[in-house]
Amino acid sequence: MSEVRIEKVQGTRKGLEGVEILGLGLVALSLGLLIFNPGSIAGLFNAMVDRAFPIIVKVFLTGTVGVALICSVMMGRILERCGFTDALMRIFVPLTRLIGINPAVIIPSVYNILGDINAAGRIAGPILVKAGATKDEQKIAIATMVQSQQSFSTFMFGLIALTAVGVQAYVVVILAVFAPLVIVPFILRHTLWRDTKAVALDELPRFTPTKAALPTLFGAAREGAELLFLLIIPAVGVTYALIGALDYVGIWQPIETGLSSLLQALAIDPTSGMVSILASPTLAMAQLKDVAATLDPRFVVGSFVLGASGFPLSVLFGQIPAIWSESTDLNEKEALGAAILGATMRIVTAGAIALFVTPLLL
């Protein structure tokens, strides 16, 4: 008969830690609410569900965004299979050697412009790793990627709005969409993230897969579905549930008011600007084109530049950290920091172009 040996384990706890104090406070708060205001807990939960439900169900599950995301991954993989990435490398290598960065840094932005910001991370993230990009270069890639619009419909709606106010649209497009592909990496490479290295074309591997056409197509569709259901919907749910909780306790309304005042000061239409930041740049541009003729041209240009970006907040705080931590060497915190920096630069760019460049284009 086997013997049972019991060892006495010496305890290592020596007093309360900060997280334990927080936990005890939450226990006391929960008990107090159950006794004196039991409806508040249910109200908080309902506020979180009510804020997240329309986005998850109506936008991603039963709306066109979820299907568009799957199609964008398919489109990106088809382009990759047809040699698109290798062609981009040949185009950007001479330019990025002058800046002193890996040419793969530009790839996510191009895939973002052509397809979708989520597909860009899923496809271009592994390309950065394969190209030997440093962590600093991967952060620069994220900050640069959020400078460009994440759907072609956003660009077209915005172009209609620019035409309605009579500005020279091509100048705005060059400054707002294409110039950041070079300017943002140049600035960040010489300021915050200096661990970069220019790479010659013959030092880079080939990025075109050798998989056959049909497996590429069906594999891309499955990859898009996995991206939608396993990463994006959970990330969106977390983001909007937190916004609902903040709104319920009265914190979100002052934040929203402050954002609206900031947009007004930067010559960005507060209505379309808030839609871009909180909901969808495509929806914001669709609304802007209908009222552009009644607005100050500066506000239309500022709103277009802001809409041609990596917003809304659910993308910055949820989807980018989730996707890029899976496909690159960055963790969630590093990816989130780069996304927030890029979004901040985009807001400043929108204000600068609206206030200082627009008067020259009329």
Give an overview in words.
The chain crosses the membrane at residues 21-49, 55-79, 91-111, 155-188, 227-251, 271-288, 300-324, 336-361. Keywords: Membrane, Transmembrane, Transmembrane helix. The protein is mostly helical and 362 residues long. The protein has helices at 18-36, 39-61, 64-81, 84-99, 107-114, 117-130, 135-145, 152-164, 169-178, 180-189, 213-248, 252-265, 270-278, 281-291, 297-307, 313-327, 332-357. The longest helix is centred in the middle third of the chain and has 36 residues, at 213-248.
Structural class: mainly alpha
**Given the C-alpha coordinates, what overall shape results?**
globular
Helix content: over 70%
* Sheet with most strands: none
Proportion of strand residues = under 5%
The count of β-strands is: 0
Number of domains: 1
Distance between the termini: 94 Å
Q: Show unreliable segments.
A: none
Question: What's the topology here?
Answer:
Layout: H1 18-36, H2 39-61, H3 64-81, H4 84-99, H5 107-114, H6 117-130, H7 135-145, H8 152-164, H9 169-178, H10 180-189, H11 213-248, H12 252-265, H13 270-278, H14 281-291, H15 297-307, H16 313-327, H17 332-357
Helix pairs in contact: 2-11, 3-6, 3-11, 5-6, 5-7, 6-7, 6-16, 7-10, 7-17, 8-14, 8-15, 11-16, 12-13, 13-14, 14-15, 15-17, 16-17
Keywords: Membrane, Transmembrane, Transmembrane helix
Transmembrane segments: 21-49, 55-79, 91-111, 155-188, 227-251, 271-288, 300-324, 336-361
